[in-house]
Write a structure and sequence with these properties.
245 residues; alpha/beta; nine-stranded mixed β-sheet; 11 strands; globular
């Protein structure tokens, strides 16, 4: 009996101090096929990658909530949530995050309204896109530093939005010229817009111009949350160890 108690105490000592605490993670809403909610359940390629890791960490409970990208980032920046799922590695632009090892990789591409770019040649991004109107989700950094530098200099026009589907629709009807995002996300947006009543012929207005880069995708942990809950550092360590297996 005494040996049983000793073993039980040893087991308890090795459990996380906050094993019963639920960690709140945010992810972008409506970003099929990477991150979305369906029948009240989190779905998508990012979520699948995350849940594979979480299955190896049964002592921790994680709740996933969905919000527009900018709001999800703000919740993590202010320490209201422990992490955000699906960030690119941008330590300089987002010093409030601690990045996990990569959970995914994706190709980012430029898609444009074919009428808007008719007759133009594109070899170099973003310089060859000068003079065009780009739609971009607020706080989405994939277009890259040079792109935003050109926007500040007035060499291209930047139209910000919240929902990516709305930006794709604006591209199709000619309110903007181009968007920058993974092609798979753009294609899913086209399917969704058609399901909402957009004429099928409008899909032909979208033209893939070029691949911009391949981005690694991470879980971004909140520095401010960890300051208040230092046990998060242990979770991050175990999370990365699991990814490395």
């Amino acid at each position: 009996m005494r040996r049983t108690i000793v073993l039980l105490l040893a087991w308890l000592l090795h459990q996380p101090a906050w094993a019963e605490k639920t960690l709140l993670f945010y992810s972008e809403a409506g970003q099929r096929p990477f991150s979305y909610e369906e029948n009240g359940m989190p779905k998508g390629l990012y979520i699948d990658s995350l849940q594979r890791v979480l299955k190896t960490l049964p002592a921790y409970r994680v709740e996933i909530r969905f919000a527009p990208w900018a709001r999800a980032l703000e919740e993590v920046k202010t320490g209201n949530a422990a992490a955000i799922v699906g960030v690119y590695h941008r330590p300089d632009e987002r010093p409030f995050l601690l990045h996990s090892k990569p959970i995914f990789a994706e190709e980012v591409a430029v898609h444009c309204n074919r009428d808007a770019v008719s007759g133009r040649q594109f070899n170099q991004y973003p310089e060859d896109f000068a003079g065009l109107r780009f739609g971009n989700q607020r706080a989405y950094l994939a277009p890259g530093p040079r792109f935003f530098e050109m926007a500040r200099a007035g060499q291209l026009t930047l139209v910000e939005g919240i929902e990516f589907h709305d930006l794709v629709k604006k591209m199709l009807v000619g309110e903007i010229d181009c968007v920058v995002n993974p092609s798979i996300v753009i294609n899913e947006a086209l399917v969704t817009l058609e399901a909402r009543g957009l004429p099928e012929r409008m899909r032909a207005k979208s033209k893939r111009i070029m691949t911009v880069k391949t981005e690694s995708v991470h879980v971004g942990f909140s520095r401010k949350y960890e300051e208040k809950n230092p046990e998060l550092a242990r979770f991050r360590e175990l999370f990365d160890q699991s990814l490395g297996r």
